[in-house]
């Protein structure tokens, strides 16, 4: 069996895609709902912007790079184990990583921190869409 190589450019592109999805998700699509459910006011956002958001975006991008890299490695294993490739492999990897690691871990915010279920759904919707898109990008560029 041929070894599958990780495409590091695809990892960067997938991380950028995740950031773009987040910008749209938490901006024009669900920004007001997210603010309301999170208890974030426009004043808090304005104060954060006044301090400068560069460091925040850099840290978020590094997190997206790590997630993309781990998903790429997971995709290699999934492709070898299930003998699938392309879009189905990307969607499968994205979904199972979301279900196993994101959806389950973020339950704590509802169960222990008292956050509303609607916020959990909104947040997990973003992560699911993001991981699916990242998985497809990574799978198509393998």
What does the overall shape look like? globular
- Name the helicity range: over 70%
Largest sheet: none
Poorly predicted ranges (pLDDT <50, ≥5 residues)? none
Q: What proportion of the residues form beta strands (DSSP E)? A: under 5%
Order of helices and strands: HHHHHHH
Summing up helix and strand content along with how strands pair, one would put the structural category as mainly alpha
Average pLDDT taken over every residue: 93
Number of strands: 0
Per-chain topology:
Blueprint: H1 8-29, H2 31-38, H3 42-51, H4 54-82, H5 86-105, H6 107-111, H7 117-140
Describe this structure in words.
The structure is a single chain. The mean pLDDT is 93. With 142 residues, the chain is mainly α. The chain contains seven helices and no strands. The chain has one domain. It is globular and about 50 Å long. Helix 4 packs across helix 7 (117-140).
In short:
This protein has helices at residues 8-29, 31-38, 42-51, 54-82, 86-105, 107-111, 117-140.
Descriptive tags:
mainly alpha; about 140 residues
